[in-house]
Structures are given as structure tokens and as C-alpha cells.
Specification:
By secondary structure, the chain is of the alpha/beta class. It has 26 helices and 8 strands.
């Protein structure tokens, strides 16, 4: 029964699929709009990955359909992305095409397992500074990746910043002005035109102009090359089980990136609509299926594309039909326009991807987070730098660790331990003075946990009283470290002859405190109270044991 529930939980419901009958005309038009935007991106990301333009287009077609059908969002558009090329390009360099196909398949399996385990819901806990820094870092990496192609040079393997630097040095020694002119022209058209008319597909228009111009002038530029006019036949020749240990690390990185980017994209799509809410585990499952099947047709690892998803939503998409039709239109383009696509200059695609990288930089978010708090700025900057310098998954982990560190530090700083004055109304001046000198009440406010508990250790040495009341009602949580500190503080006071009373311990905190023996010892001595008033009455009896003191008004 549990297995059946797991399957039904991650598979799309018939109701969701039946929604594709709603507004078919609007959704087909949205699919066409997205396909026009996606075509040059699919070709460009295929080239950037090192597998070739054909692999990028196949990925957009196969993964686009499967992720749309099995995914958890009605608006998501999937395919090759710039972030994914950053991960798989080194795999191609080290293990060849077969290795990168195997990595994609293994990543798909990992995503399906994560979906079945219900991991999707936890992806929402990634802090905004990590996401924004990660996106900015990816944009920089994508832009640097395109420098060799924009300069008419062959891409090299290694850190993208180092490769870009060497490409510039080589270009200065032997310039290739034709490629530079094409890349700059495409870049300018996309950035300037995008500001003028944001909804117009200037990327496709720029390529459509640059290609015949390059042919007419017989410019000596590198082109995409021949593409097949049909989809490749599925095969599993690349599957090598013995390579799994070698490729496991890369597969996990691809799966993590695919899950992260897909759920982030789905969240963005939800925010652009009113009624749509994605299902995170189904989205992971859909991306898993897409990544398992796409390599069988020669496609690379895929994920949801935030930019294409946003275009889809803005074009009026409301069902999965839009994303499905986008893939079908790309397949028709492969069938009809393959000979024309072969002549597209690589420099033109480089211009498209550099413009895409520029648009990925969320200037408003960078400025807002940079001004919010110093810790947010540090986390964002650290994640961005790690993305460029090291590895995407490592960058996210470093960013998360930094965010957790600052969050814990801020929580620890917010914890207070305050002395609370006693109510001495109804007592004579001498008695009031004696009570104030001999009874001290402390109220802990906030979490009593490992990062803040040490701040309490110095307090017992500073207390000069006969009775100390520890008020615990405002403690939000207690962990083992906090319980041990309470024990040490009480034992330190008792060694000095100070009587310790405790009040207001919540039921949820008793387990940690009981484990140290604190509660049992206090309870045996009659020094554990459910409320502060009872503890104050007991403390007064210890300090003023005469009948006049018993009848006084409790307070504190």
C-alpha cells in the first residue's frame, strides 16, 4: 500500500493531464513563442557542452516533452541550460560523449529516487542569497565559456576564467575579426532590442540575419556543421555499468543541479501566476524521467529553464500543452531546417549565450541583498565566487554552510538572560532589602542551544545571593549542550551554597534536561515548580521563614 501511495504521489494525475484541453489555441501559440526562443539556445548550449548542436536540440525535444508530461508544473519548460553545460562540459572532456550520456542517465535515476523519497519539499529551504549568488556565478561562467568561440578560437579545457584569459592572449596574437564582429552584432541586437521590445525573439532574428550575411560575404568563420534531419534512433550502447563508480560524483552533481534549478524555476513560474502551484516531488520525478530517456537519443542532461519558462508564462501558457508543443515545433524545425541550421556561425551562438548570461544577472536582487545585511552580502558573494572558481555543487554547499553559520550566529546573539526584579510590595523596608539581596531571578529568553548556551557559563560566578530562581518559561528550545550548561551552572551555584529553584519548564524540554539528571535532582529536593509564583513563594520562605513572611504577596 505504501509503495502504491508513493507511485501515485509522484505521477501526474489524470485531472492535471486533462487540463490540456483548456484554451488549446492560446497554449499552442505560447509553445510556438517558446520554441522560437529555445531554438538558438538549444543549439548554443549543445555546442557549449562539447557534445554538439545536435545534442542540444535533441535534449530540448525529448526532455522537453517528458518533463512536461511527468513533471509537477503545468508551466515548466525544460531542456539544455547554461548551468548544466558548466557541469557536463568537463565530463565530456574527461570521459567523452559516452561518459556524459551515462552521467545524464545516472542523474535521472538519482532524481527519481529523490522524488520517491519526498526530498523535493526540502529544496525550498535554500536561502535567497545562495540562489542569487549561484545564478550570478553561473551567468559569469556562461559568459566566460563563450569567449573563445566569440574570438574565433577553439575552446580549451580547464577553469573558464583561465581559458578565457588565454583565448584573449591568443586573439591578440592572431585576431579573427569576422567572428568578433558577428558575436558583438548579435549581442548588441539582443540587448538593445530586448530593452525596446522585450517579447520579440531578437536572438532568432539576429541569427537569421547573421547567417546569410556570413554566407554572402564568404566570411571565414566556424559554423555548426551538418545536422541530421530526423531524431536519432534510441540506443543504449553508451551504458557501461563498470563506469558507475567513476561517474557517480558527476551524476550526483548533475542531479543536484537539475533538482535545484527545476524547483527554483517552478517557484518563479508560480509567482508569475495566481492559481498555479507546482508539486516538488513530481517535478523531480519528471526531470528524472527526462534525464533517463534523453541520453538514449543522444541528448545531454536537462533541467527546467527559468528564462524559457518565464517566456512561456508571459505568452499566456496555462497547461502542459504549451511546453509539449514547443518540443514538437523544435522537432519539426530539425526536420525542415537542418540544412540551414548547419551554416549558423558559432560566433553568433556565442553572442546569443553571452546576452543570455547578461540577462541572467539579477541586478535588483544583487543590490537589495547587498544592502540588506552584511551576512547576506557575504553569502551571496561567496557563492558567486565559488561557482566561478570551483564547482557549482560545491558552491551551493559552501553558500549553504555560510548561510547556516550566519543564521546560527544571529540566533545566538538574539538570546538573552535577564535578571528579573522581585515584587516586594507588602514587605517592610528591611524585608524588601533582604529579599532583593538574597533572592535573584533570571529569565532565559530564546533557544538554549549549543551556539548560545556558553554565554550562561559566566553568570554563576557573578551571582551573590542565597537563592537563585531560573525561569524557563520563555525558553524556545533546549538541546543537549544547553541542558549540560544548565546542569553545570546549577552545580556551580550549589557548590557555593546557593539554593537553585527552577520554574516553567515546558514538557517538550524535559527530555533533554532529564537526561542530565537536573530535573530529577531538583524535583527530589522540592525545588522544581510549574510556575514562577510558586518558586518565589518557596524562595521567600527560605529567606524569611517567620510567619509574617509567609503571608506576603508573591511576585516576580
Amino acid at each position: 500500500m505504501n509503495r502504491f501511495r508513493t507511485v501515485t504521489r509522484i505521477l501526474p494525475s489524470w485531472t492535471e493531464l486533462a487540463r490540456m484541453r483548456e484554451r488549446p489555441g492560446t497554449n499552442l501559440l505560447a509553445g510556438l513563442t517558446v520554441a522560437i526562443v529555445a531554438l538558438p539556445l538549444a543549439l548554443g548550449f549543445g555546442v557549449a557542452s562539447g557534445v554538439g548542436a545536435e545534442a542540444g536540440l535533441v535534449t530540448a525535444i525529448i526532455a522537453g516533452v517528458l518533463a512536461a508530461v511527468f513533471g509537477g508544473s503545468n508551466l515548466q519548460v525544460s531542456g539544455p541550460t547554461g548551468a548544466m553545460t558548466v557541469v557536463i562540459a568537463p565530463v565530456v572532456a574527461q570521459h567523452g560523449t559516452g561518459g556524459v550520456l551515462m552521467v545524464g542517465l545516472l542523474a535521472g535515476v538519482v532524481l527519481i529516487v529523490l522524488a520517491a523519497a519526498g526530498v523535493g519539499r526540502y529544496m525550498t529551504f535554500i536561502p535567497a542569497p545562495v540562489v542569487v549568488g549561484f545564478t550570478a556565478g553561473i551567468a559569469v561562467v556562461i559568459g566566460l565559456q563563450q569567449v573563445p568561440a566569440a574570438l574565433g578560437l577553439e575552446p580549451d579545457v580547464g577553469n573558464v576564467a583561465v581559458v578565457a584569459f588565454h583565448a584573449v592572449v591568443d586573439f591578440i596574437a592572431a585576431p579573427h575579426w569576422a567572428e568578433v564582429g558577428i558575436a558583438v552584432a548579435v549581442l548588441a541586437v539582443m540587448l538593445i532590442g530586448g530593452r525596446w521590445r522585450p517579447g520579440f525573439p531578437f536572438s532568432l532574428a539576429a541569427i537569421a540575419v547573421a547567417t546569410p550575411v556570413a554566407l554572402a560575404l564568404a566570411l571565414p568563420v566556424k559554423t555548426i556543421g551538418a545536422l541530421p534531419a530526423t531524431l536519432p534512433a534510441p540506443n543504449l550502447d553508451f551504458v557501461d555499468l563498470s563506469a558507475i563508480p567513476t561517474l557517480a560524483g558527476a551524476a550526483i552533481a548533475v542531479a543536484a543541479l537539475s533538482g535545484l534549478e527545476s524547483l527554483l524555476s517552478a517557484t518563479v513560474a508560480d509567482g508569475m501566476t495566481v492559481r498555479e502551484r507546482h508539486h516538488p516531488d513530481r517535478e523531480l520525478f519528471g526531470q528524472g524521467v527526462a534525464n533517463v530517456v534523453a541520453p538514449m537519443f543522444g541528448g545531454v542532461a536537462a533541467t527546467a529553464a527559468i528564462a524559457r519558462t518565464a517566456v512561456n508564462v508571459k505568452a499566456g501558457a496555462s497547461t502542459r500543452l504549451a511546453a509539449i508543443s514547443h518540443s514538437i515545433i523544435l522537432a519539426l524545425a530539425m526536420l525542415v531546417a537542418a540544412p540551414l541550421v548547419a551554416h549558423i556561425p558559432l560566433a553568433a551562438l556565442a553572442g546569443v549565450l553571452i546576452a543570455t548570461a547578461v540577462r541572467m544577472v539579477q541586478v535588483g536582487s544583487l543590490r537589495a541583498l547587498g544592502r540588506a545585511t552584511r551576512s547576506d552580502a557575504v553569502v551571496m558573494g561567496l557563492t558567486a565566487v565559488m561557482t566561478v572558481a570551483l564547482d557549482l555543487v560545491v558552491a551551493v554547499l559552501v553558500g549553504l554552510l555560510a548561510a547556516v553559520f550566519f543564521a546560527v550566529r544571529n540566533i545566538a546573539r538574539s538570546v538573552t538572560l535577564d535578571e528579573v526584579p522581585l515584587d516586594v510590595d507588602g514587605h517592610s523596608p528591611d524585608e524588601a532589602t533582604r529579599l532583593a539581596e538574597d533572592i535573584v531571578a533570571y529569565r532565559w529568553d530564546g533557544p538554549l542551544f549549543f551556539a548560545a548556551a556558553h554565554r550562561f557559563l559566566a553568570e554563576p560566578e557573578e551571582i551573590d545571593a542565597k537563592v537563585v530562581i531560573l525561569r524557563m518559561s520563555r525558553v524556545s528550545t533546549v538541546d543537549a549542550s544547553g541542558a549540560l550548561v544548565v546542569k553545570e551552572a546549577i552545580e556551580g551555584l550549589e557548590r557555593r551554597g546557593v539554593v537553585v529553584l527552577m520554574s516553567g519548564v515546558k514538557d517538550s524540554h524535559r527530555r533533554a534536561l532529564t537526561a542530565t539528571g537536573v530535573l530529577d535532582r531538583l524535583d527530589e529536593r522540592g525545588r522544581l515548580f510549574t510556575d514562577t509564583e510558586a518558586a518565589v513563594v518557596a524562595a521567600r520562605l527560605m529567606v524569611l521563614p517567620d510567619p509574617d513572611g509567609v503571608g506576603t504577596k508573591p511576585g516576580g
